[in-house]
């Protein structure tokens, strides 16, 4: 049977604390990466091109001729 000493208890607690810190850091890092990816998608600019065609008072044939 293994004897449990104060030193082994101290080492075990230190390892547990280290593992808790690592888990927190991993959760923070994964959250940061996810939020960054979402922010990048939201800030991307899209270019839209539009043309203005005056259609008031045009016949159907004139309209078709103008857009072609």
Mean pLDDT: 83
Q: What pattern of helices and strands is seen along the backbone?
A: HH
This entry's quaternary arrangement is single chain
Biggest sheet overview: none
User: What is the percentage of strand-forming residues?
Assistant: under 5%
The share of residues in helices is 55-70%
- Structural class estimated from helices and strands: mainly alpha
- Shape by Cα distribution: rod-shaped
Work out the radius of gyration: 33 Å
> How far is the first residue's CA from the last residue's CA?
92 Å
Number of helices: 2
- Poorly predicted regions: none
Give the beta-strand count: 0
Task: Please summarize what this structure is.
This protein has 68 residues and is mainly α. It has helices spanning 6-43, 60-67.
Structure description:
This protein has 68 residues and is mainly α. The chain is built from two helices and no strands. It starts with 5 loop residues before the first helix and ends with a helix. The model has no long low-confidence stretch (mean pLDDT 83).
SSE topology:
Layout: H1 6-43, H2 60-67
What key phrases describe this protein's structure?
68% helix; mainly alpha; 68 residues; rod-shaped; 2 helices
